[in-house]
Amino acid sequence: MAETIFAPWDDPNAKPLIRFRNVTKRFGEFTAIDDLTIDIYEREFFALLGPSGCGKTTLMRMLGGFETPTEGQIELAGKDIARVPPNKRSVNMMFQSYALFPHLSIWDNIAFGLRRGRMPKAEIANRVEEMLRLTRLEKFARRKPHQISGGQRQRVALARSLAKAPTLLLLDEPLGALDKKLRQDTQFELMDIQERTGTTFVIVTHDQEEAMTVASRVAVMEDGRIVQVATPDAIYETPNSVYVADFIGDVNIIVGRADPQGDKVHLNWAEGQPKFIGTPASPFEKGQTCHYAIRPEKISISAQKPEGATNTVEGKVLDIAYLGNISTYHVELAGGQVIKAQKANNRRISRRSFTWGDQVWLSWTDTAGILLER
Amino acid sequence: MRRFTWFNTTSLTLGFAFLYLPMIILVIYSFNDSKLVTVWAGFSTRWYGELIQNDAFLDAAWVTIKVAGISSTLATVLGTMAAIVMVRMGRFHGRTLFSGMIYAPLVMPEVITGLSLLLLFIGLGLDRGVFTIILAHTTFSMCYVSVVVSSRLISFDTSLEEAALDLGCSPLQAFRLVTLPIIAPAVISGWLLAFTLSLDDLVIASFTSGPSATTLPMKIWSSVRLGVSPEINALSTLMIAVVTVGVVTASLISKRAAVQQRRDEQAADRAGMA
């Protein structure tokens, strides 16, 4: 039984749920969003990722109706909603601070949105009970927000924003206030709830691991623009710029001059050193400056020169960062270039093969390294 | 325990004596049997009895309560509105002027406020009486309300209002259902403050009242000028009692709520960790 892969963004006939068309938002002199165009599809779990001040929150607040764009259009299901107030659009938001009403019980918090419509009382009660079950909060219905723990508060906020069955749910750093362990559990819970309700989720986060875990697609933002939109694996494996490669995970960047050979590019990175071979993200001219990006976990480390590897280079262990499951070796090459290589600690630490000052060989394949223009 | 050194004890005693000795003497003498205020002639509650018979005092008390109740309510509505404008509307044109003008009555000498209001009422041809005192008290007490309410609004998480809008409230509903219940303690203490200010105001009331309306402070003042009577002591003791009961109750309620909230939060965090 072949399962169809969820990828409406590759289907030319798919109609996007949300369309940003040349949206610009200025606050006085400051441009928060700069001529941004993007499509988000139904049932997607879309992550907006970027450092603080990149405009991801502004983008989300425009979807929620708390900011109006200076220029451009925002369409939701084919209708321009750029100037529709928040209470008139079927979009709900889960706030970073959760924004639970302190004077109302958990039950009343969840029922709050439902009571604003013309829903009969019995139906409201049913819906609230359903939401309490979904978020496993049945026991806490009569408590006030300050009488439950942080993780439970987070679930109340989620239940409240899902209660009205919005076409689009916005999540503003939803897990920012939770500790790491709870955050990981909650990520899977979020994905599960998203799948079960079939709601389109747009999440804002600065945590790349979180974005990679939950999202169907990730948009990496910088200075009010989207630098790259792709699935988590595509963002990680084939970043389109040094900025994206550096923002997502750990990466070695080696600057040099390009020497195209067939569909591969050889990188001339230091005098008298073997060239590195990699796969280009875009065509390169001979002699053009380029950035060679290689992930530390894709580099193997050995005592002898490995046979048959495409890229090999010798260096000296400068530093070792022991992280428990893996160790990161900082290896200095001739000419002072330092490369990070990771090795899984599948043996006890006392049996470690390399130590400070050892001469080692690094090797990797020609598809592991990516050549980027900028 | 080094808390009760002789220095601490002395300064505490002196401080309390300074604050409360006059009031204690007043309370003691209100139970004096003698007609002469300064001569002790045994315990008695006769002046309280005579006070209840005194229609002039009772009328004045009724006027005072009416004025304080209405003016503090009006001041609370206006002061809360002013606080919202100042905290929420951002940097609109003329904001500094507006906030300056709101807070000016705080530092304005009462005599000047009273005089200018008197001139205004004469200019407008308003008959001076209960109505004009209410207007005057509203004017000077609304700035106190707006100070109290705006200090609460500054620490108010605006995302609560945004959440209300997001869940389908109109801006007015969001205020009524979310903002107002949360800032209610500040609004109530603003009202209490305005009420007490109006209750003990003498200067502004003297300027703006007419022959038909006399407030209790005015009545006390005018009778004291003819000599301090033990009846006044009894009346003042009653006022002290009312104010004390009010203040103590209010502070006990808010303290217990705070303690309860802290205990709940700690319990919730422990439960969440387990």
Short description:
The complex is a heterodimer of chains A (374) and B (274). By secondary structure, chain A is an alpha+beta fold.
**What is the CATH-assigned architecture of the largest domain in chain A?**
3-Layer(aba) Sandwich
Strand count of chain A:
20
Task: Extract low-pLDDT stretches of chain B.
Answer: none
CATH architectural category of the domain at 64-224 in chain B: Orthogonal Bundle
Report the radius of gyration of chain A as a whole number of Å: 25 Å
Identify the most extensive interface between protein chains. A-B, 31 and 26 residues
Helix and strand run of chain B: HHHHHHHHHHH
Terminal Cα separation of chain B, in Å? 38 Å
**Quick one: biggest sheet of chain A?**
6 strands, mixed
What overall geometry of chain B do the principal axes of the alpha carbons give? globular
Query: What is the CATH superfamily label of the domain at 64-224 in chain B?
Result: MetI-like
Question: What is the residue-averaged pLDDT of chain A?
Answer: 89
Mean model confidence by pLDDT of chain B: 86
**Number of helical runs of chain A?**
8
Tally of individual domains of chain A = 2
For the largest beta-sheet of chain B, the strand count, sense and barrel status come to: none
One letter per element, helices H and strands E, the order of chain A comes to EEEHEEEHHHEHEHEEHHEEEEEEEEEE
In terms of DSSP E residues, the strand content of chain B is under 5%
Oligomer: heterodimer
Fraction of residues in helix of chain B: over 70%
Alpha-beta content class of chain B:
mainly alpha
Descriptive overview:
The complex is a heterodimer of chains A (374) and B (274). Chain A is α+β, with helices and mostly antiparallel strands. Chain A has two domains: 8-243, Rossmann fold (3-Layer(aba) Sandwich), CATH 3.40.50.300; 250-372, OB fold (Dihydrolipoamide Acetyltransferase, E2P). Chain A has helices at 56-64, 106-115, 121-134, 150-162, 180-197, 208-214, 232-237, 242-247, and strands at 18-27, 30-40, 45-49, 71-76, 79-80, 91-94, 168-172, 200-205, 217-222, 225-230, 252-261, 264-268, 276-280, 289-294, 300-302, 311-322, 326-333, 338-344, 359-364, 370-372. In chain A, the strands form four sheets. In chain A, strands 6-7-8-3-9-10 form a six-stranded mixed β-sheet, with helices on both faces. A five-stranded mixed β-barrel of chain A has the order 11-12-13-20-14. In chain A, helix 2 crosses helix 3, helix 2 (106-115) runs parallel beside helix 4 and helix 3 (121-134) packs across helix 4 (150-162). The longest helix of chain A is centred in the middle third of the chain and has 18 residues, at 180-197. By secondary structure, chain B is an all-alpha fold. Chain B has a domain at 64-224: MetI-like fold (Orthogonal Bundle). Helices cover 79% and strands 0% of the residues of chain B. Chain B contains eleven helices and no strands. Chain B has helices spanning 6-30, 46-53, 55-88, 95-107, 110-124, 130-154, 159-166, 171-199, 203-208, 216-225, 230-273. In chain B, helix 3 (55-88) packs antiparallel against helix 8 (171-199) and helix 7 packs across helix 8 (171-199). Chain B is globular, with a radius of gyration of 24 Å. The mean pLDDT of chain B is 86. The interface between A and B is medium-sized, with 31 and 26 residues. Chain B: Keywords: Cell membrane, Membrane, Transmembrane, Transmembrane helix, Transport. Chain B: Belongs to the binding-protein-dependent transport system permease family. CysTW subfamily.
